[in-house]
């Protein structure tokens, strides 16, 4: 059976039963149908001090790694061992669902459900974020049209519209065409919602008051004499917060085995900071003894941002880190074409292993976290290949746990769960890859050299000047936007390259989110659809049954 068929074969529990497992009062649970609900945290008095477990991975390949699937199987495995565990995950974006990556609800018997709802409209959070973003865009252009009292320069408007879909045609456009009544013609463009600053603000805010402050700080452009204009200057933050009020409540769902899961917020990790909401993570830590969360793409992106941005801002401390890999993916990093991954190839595996080893060493040596490597096992993996991976990790003092959660659910994740529980009892103190008081240029250099393995950083003309100007405005963490496929800014350089120069071509100040985005290489904030998008294989029959969703 495929993922969708497996999801439909399992009868989910009523969401009220899942809420009971968390001891949530009835008045705190706002059902959205039978199997999903919003949680009103103002009516929750849980005060546990749970331990946080971060699941990350190697750089993704066409072979797949299964980070979300392992996260779900790990939480299910912990509950099978009698532990009070739950999940805190991101919401999927419609862009990847209809594009190339597919959904983000896990796979096989390690899924969160209802799978179709979560991968499509869910509870409408991403639509609310889109609406809030575009309300601000409309207010910017309306202000210019209605006399422009602030003197906002139409040529220096930095705020972009967004939509939750891959559409390369909208990356750079001219808006306001068609005559005076249609607005002031100006350069414009769209980002995907998951890469928008409103999404970042939504996920980093710790409540409605903080949300409004962050929204108000967002930069929308500059006046004719170069002064910054913010959303607060346009009096937009109140209406934007009103659109986001219900969305700010975390979404409660469950795994196929009935493990509670908060699925809330969904910034991309290659462009944005790649973590679920601070509100949901902190709420989960109050409700359970162990909380499993994941950060997007490889550890050089999602985990770095989870630790250097989210944990720093929210005061979070992971107790253990899981780095997910597969033998197939490591052979991809060693140069094996996808069609040949089923054949034993120890030479290619040895060439690809440095990718996993660098991610593991970064978690150990840069961030000082206890680490385990989770190896998703395929039937084509040979004993010699598995032994090679195990020996390489053993030399770092790290254990390898074989996982079969796709086929076995929580049972296939119990060995990993036992190792994670052991790691959670080890003392650790989170460190960061750069000090917050360092200049932005130095922060980018430290990420590039300490985490990516670069020799140095090259900046496009004008970027250093921008960074120095923002240094005078505050101490901002850095969110590097780069390809997910490589430690470098070149998606074709697999494995663990060294001695390269990271190319920073552009930077943006996300004042509301509280960080600076540095764009490396050719990465963009509005993806396009592939030659054969997943949307071509998705359909719904006369009975309302969806097919092709994965």
Helix and strand arrangement:
Blueprint: H1 3-9, H2 15-21, E1 29-31, E2 37-39, E3 51-57, H3 67-80, E4 85-89, H4 94-98, E5 106-107, E6 110-113, H5 115-119, H6 125-145, E7 152-157, E8 161-163, E9 173-175, E10 186-188, E11 190-192, H7 197-204, H8 208-217, E12 219-223, E13 228-230, H9 237-244, E14 251-255, E15 260-263, H10 278-287, E16 290-294, H11 299-314, E17 318-326, H12 327-333, H13 346-366, E18 371-376, H14 383-394, E19 400-403, H15 405-408, H16 414-424, H17 440-452, E20 456-459, H18 463-471, E21 478-481, E22 501-510, E23 515-520, E24 539-540, E25 546-547
Parallel strand pairs: 3-16, 3-17, 4-15, 4-16, 8-11, 17-18, 18-19, 20-22, 21-23
Antiparallel strand pairs: 1-2, 2-14, 5-6, 6-14, 7-12, 9-10, 12-13, 14-15, 22-23, 24-25
What does the largest sheet look like? 12 strands, mixed
Give the beta-strand count: 25
**Distance N to C terminus:** 12 Å
Global morphology: globular
Number of helices: 18
Low-confidence stretches: none
Strand content: 15-25%
The structural class is alpha/beta
Whole-number average pLDDT? 95
Radius of gyration: 23 Å
Helix content: 25-40%
List keywords for this structure.
34% helix, four-stranded mixed β-sheet, alpha/beta, single chain, 550 residues, 18 helices
């Amino acid at each position: 059976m495929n993922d969708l068929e497996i999801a439909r074969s399992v009868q989910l529990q009523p969401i009220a039963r899942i809420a009971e497992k968390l001891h949530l009062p009835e008045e705190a649970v706002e059902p959205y149908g039978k199997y999903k609900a919003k949680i009103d945290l103002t009516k929750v008095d849980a005060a546990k001090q749970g331990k946080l477990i971060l699941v990350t991975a190697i750089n993704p390949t066409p072979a797949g790694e299964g980070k979300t699937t392992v996260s779900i199987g790990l939480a299910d495995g912990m509950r099978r061992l009698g532990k009070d565990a739950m999940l805190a995950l991101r919401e999927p974006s419609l862009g990847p669902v209809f594009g190339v990556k597919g959904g983000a609800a896990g796979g096989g018997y390690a899924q969160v459900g209802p799978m179709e709802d979560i991968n499509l409209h869910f509870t409408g959070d991403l639509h609310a974020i889109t609406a809030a973003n575009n309300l601000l865009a409309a207010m910017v252009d309306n202000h210019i049209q209605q006399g422009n009292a602030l003197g906002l320069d139409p040529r220096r408007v930095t705020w972009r519209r967004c939509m939750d879909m891959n559409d390369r045609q909208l990356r750079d456009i001219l808006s306001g065409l068609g005559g005076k009544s249609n607005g002031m013609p100006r350069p414009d463009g769209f980002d995907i919602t998951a890469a928008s600053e409103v999404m970042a603000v939504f996920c980093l805010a710790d409540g409605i008051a903080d949300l409004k402050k962050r929204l108000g700080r967002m930069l929308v452009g500059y006046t004719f004499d170069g002064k910054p204009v913010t959303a607060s200057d346009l009096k937009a933050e109140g209406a934007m917060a009103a659109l986001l009020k219900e969305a700010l409540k975390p979404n409660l769902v469950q795994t196929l085995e009935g493990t509670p899961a908060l699925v809330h917020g969904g910034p991309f990790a290659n462009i944005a900071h790649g973590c679920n909401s601070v509100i949901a993570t902190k709420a989960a830590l109050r409700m359970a003894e162990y909380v499993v969360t994941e950060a997007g793409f490889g550890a050089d992106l999602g985990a770095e941002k989870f630790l250097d941005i989210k944990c720093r801002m929210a005061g979070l401390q992971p107790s253990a880190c899981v780095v997910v890999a597969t033998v197939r993916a490591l052979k991809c990093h060693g140069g094996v074409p996808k069609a040949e991954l089923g054949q034993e190839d120890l030479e290619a595996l040895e060439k690809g292993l440095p990718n996993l080893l660098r991610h593991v060493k970064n978690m150990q040596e840069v961030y000082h976290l206890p680490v385990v490597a989770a190896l998703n096992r395929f039937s084509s993996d040979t004993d010699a290949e598995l032994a090679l991976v195990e020996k390489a990790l053993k030399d770092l003092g790290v254990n390898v746990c074989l996982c079969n959660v796709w086929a076995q659910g929580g049972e296939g994740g119990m060995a990993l769960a036992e190792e994670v529980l052991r790691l959670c009892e080890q003392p650790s103190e989170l460190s960061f890859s750069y000090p917050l008081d360092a200049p932005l240029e130095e922060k980018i250099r430290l990420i590039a050299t300490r985490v990516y393995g670069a020799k140095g950083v090259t900046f496009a003309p004008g970027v250093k000047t921008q960074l120095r100007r923002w240094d005078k405005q505050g101490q901002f963490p850095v969110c590097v936007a780069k390809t997910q496929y490589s430690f470098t800014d070149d998606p074709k350089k697999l494995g663990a390259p060294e001695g390269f120069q990271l190319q920073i071509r552009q930077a943006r100040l996300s004042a509301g989110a509280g960080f600076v985005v540095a764009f490396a290489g050719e990465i963009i904030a509005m993806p396009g659809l592939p030659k054969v998008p997943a949307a071509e294989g998705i359909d719904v029959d006369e009975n309302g049954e969806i097919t092709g969703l994965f």
